[in-house]
TrEMBL record:
Coiled coil: none annotated. Residues 24-39 have a biased composition (Low complexity). This is TadE-like protein. Residues 1-42 are annotated as: Disordered. It holds the Pfam family TadE. The chain crosses the membrane at residues 49-69. Residues 48-90 form the TadE-like domain. Keywords: Membrane, Transmembrane, Transmembrane helix.
Length: 172
């Protein structure tokens, strides 16, 4: 028999682990014993608790998920309005360009994301050779552009504008 002095650290750890396994196996109940049946009955009583917990947590969980979709949509609309105003201003500052061409470019970009009811306005309304700068304003009503719950954005609009100097050279 090995004494504690003659065992190495590894052997000591192995014998302690074997003792833990034996005690864990010895504490198991036989399949038909009273304590094994009690564990099964306890599990059945907890099944109703899971349903109640789900019923309490599910509405809040789905509200968070739907809010994520709605705010993502609003963010996409905001970035698209910024980009549409910028691109329309870029088209408008080129010599010989008209507001109709710039409006077409802005509407093309807004159509890609499905923005409904958007309006594109220019200042000045007519671009002439004497125009120094062009301001394009894109307005999107959020009433008709919500995906999940447009109730929270009712009556609000998203507005973005871009101002650029024209590329026209003045003749003296």
């Amino acid at each position: 028999m090995l004494t504690k002095d003659s065992m190495t650290n590894d052997e000591t750890r192995m014998t302690k682990a074997a003792g833990r396994r034996r005690s864990a196996l010895g504490s198991r109940s036989a399949p038909g014993s009273r304590s094994a049946l009690g564990r099964r009955w306890g599990r059945k009583r907890r099944m109703g608790a899971t349903t109640v917990e789900f019923a309490l947590v599910a509405p809040a969980f789905f509200l968070v998920i739907m809010s994520m979709f709605e705010f993502t949509r609003l963010n996409v609309l905001r970035h698209t309005a910024d980009n549409a105003a910028y691109e329309a201003a870029r088209v408008a500052i080129v010599p010989g360009a008209t507001t109709a061409q710039a409006r077409t470019e802005a509407n093309r970009l807004l159509t890609i994301v499905g923005a409904r009811g958007a309006s594109v306005n220019f200042n000045p309304g007519t671009i002439t050779p004497e125009t120094d700068s062009v301001t394009v304003t894109v307005t999107i009503p959020l009433d008709s552009n919500g995906w999940v719950v447009p109730r929270f954005t009712r009556g609000r609009t998203l507005t973005s504008s871009a101002t650029m100097r024209t590329e026209r050279v003045r003749s003296r």
